[in-house]
């Protein structure tokens, strides 16, 4: 009998390895300008919805009207669902907010279509703090900092809007680590793809 976990893990690892040349060849186009922006998010995760709504508002303030694609876990963990999402976002930038597993799958499939990652951020939630780890595609090294749980969405939305505008991401918020209290909730990944 087949072990589903081993099969899925092998499938994802194979996709990531197969897409490595595509990731390396992907060129980063100039800032958004008139290119459409699709905001893909997990509508069943409250933190993802909060960040996505902040991102949408921030982008609208900057004159960009994103197309909102509210997806559930089923859509973002099935190849056919991810293909549909990528087809709807074709020809523009994708800003995503989702769990780590969905992010890995979407990145791998998008890379096989020639997409590149401009920035990827991991967010870990604790009682009083959000810990961020941001990896830009080029230029500066990874950024790591802690932020208050109050208003973190607005600051991360501004970071992604800066990347869409062609500016490097900079940490916006406290740079000092805040003591974690209690267990961490499930984390999120937010990113910008070309």
The percent range for helix content is 40-55%
Distance between the termini: 40 Å
- Strand residues, percent: 25-35%
**Main β-sheet, spatial strand arrangement:** 2-1-3-7-4-5-6
Secondary structure tally: strands: 7
What summary fits the major beta sheet?
7 strands, mixed
Chain oligomer state: single chain
**Rg value:** 16 Å
Find the structural class using helix and strand composition. alpha/beta
Low-confidence stretches: 16-32, 174-181
* Secondary-structure element pattern, one letter each: HEHEHHEHEEEHE
Q: Tally the helices.
A: 6
How confident is the prediction overall: mean pLDDT?
79
Overall geometric form: globular
Structure description:
This protein is α/β, with parallel strands linked by helices. The chain has helices at 4-25, 46-61, 73-76, 79-88, 100-112, 152-164; strands at 37-42, 67-71, 93-98, 117-125, 129-136, 143-148, 185-193. Strands 2-1-3-7-4-5-6 form a seven-stranded mixed sheet, with helices on both faces. β4 and β5 (129-136) form a beta hairpin.
Layout of helices and strands:
Elements: H1 4-25, E1 37-42, H2 46-61, E2 67-71, H3 73-76, H4 79-88, E3 93-98, H5 100-112, E4 117-125, E5 129-136, E6 143-148, H6 152-164, E7 185-193
Parallel strand pairs: 1-2, 1-3
Antiparallel strand pairs: 3-7, 4-5, 4-7, 5-6
Helix pairs in contact: 1-5, 2-6, 4-5
């Amino acid at each position: 009998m087949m072990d589903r976990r081993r099969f899925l893990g092998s499938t994802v690892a194979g996709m990531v390895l197969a897409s490595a040349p595509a990731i390396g060849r992907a060129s980063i186009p100039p800032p958004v300008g008139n290119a459409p922006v699709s905001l893909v998010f997990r509508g069943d995760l409250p933190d993802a919805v909060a960040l996505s709504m902040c991102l949408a508002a921030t982008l609208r303030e900057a004159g960009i009207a994103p197309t909102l694609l509210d997806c559930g876990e089923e859509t973002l963990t099935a190849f056919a669902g991810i293909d549909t999402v990528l087809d709807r976002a074709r020809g523009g930038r994708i800003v995503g907010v989702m769990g780590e597993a969905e992010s890995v799958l979407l990145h791998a499939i998008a890379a096989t279509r020639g997409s590149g990652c401009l920035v990827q951020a991991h967010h870990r939630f604790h009682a009083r703090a959000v810990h961020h780890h941001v990896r830009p595609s080029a230029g500066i090294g990874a950024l790591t900092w802690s932020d208050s749980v109050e208003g973190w969405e607005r600051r991360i939305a501004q970071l992604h809007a800066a990347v869409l505008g062609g500016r490097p991401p900079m940490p916006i918020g406290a740079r000092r680590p805040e003591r974690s209290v209690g267990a961490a909730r499930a984390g999120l990944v937010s990113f910008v793809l070309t």
